Amino acid sequence: MLDKNNMMKFMEQAQEIQKKMQNIKKEISKMQIKGESGAGLVQITVNGNNNCIKTNIDPSLLNIKQKEILEDLITAAFNSALQKINEEKKNKMYQFTPESNFPNTINPFI
């Protein structure tokens, strides 16, 4: 059973955890990660909210006759960017989870 002192300590720890989570969430929202495909011919940048914020297509690809190739490269670059940003999010959360005793599978940002 929790006494008054333990309850106050618990509430202080909960507030500290909440502040840390808010800071991590802000850091994640500011992140930008670039994914690429076709040896860099297609590059897509996503932010921490998984929004595509920039696409770069090498001009040499604009002359190809098979549009499916370009579509596949764009899809691959986007998936690469999402994979990288999600890995960065996990790394940010891992910095938080060991000290708070939360399992590493809890990640509200992904």
Number of distinct helices: 2
- Low-pLDDT segments: none
SSE arrangement, N to C? HEEEH
- Please state the overall shape, judged from the principal axes of the Cα atoms: rod-shaped
Could you say which structural class the secondary elements and strand pairing correspond to?
Answer: alpha+beta
Helical amount: 55-70%
Which CATH architecture of the domain at 32-100?
A: 2-Layer Sandwich
Largest sheet: 3 strands, antiparallel
| Ends distance | 35 Å
Q: Kindly identify the CATH topology of the domain at 32-100.
A: Ybab, Chain: A
Task: Explain this structure.
This protein is an alpha+beta fold. It has helices spanning 4-30, 67-100, and strands at residues 32-37, 42-47, 52-57. α1 (4-30) packs antiparallel against α2 (67-100).
Summarize the entry for a quick read:
Helices cover about 55% and strands about 15% of the residues. With about 110 residues, the protein is an alpha+beta fold.
SSE order and pairing:
Elements: H1 4-30, E1 32-37, E2 42-47, E3 52-57, H2 67-100
Features:
110 residues; alpha+beta; Ybab, Chain: A; 16% strand
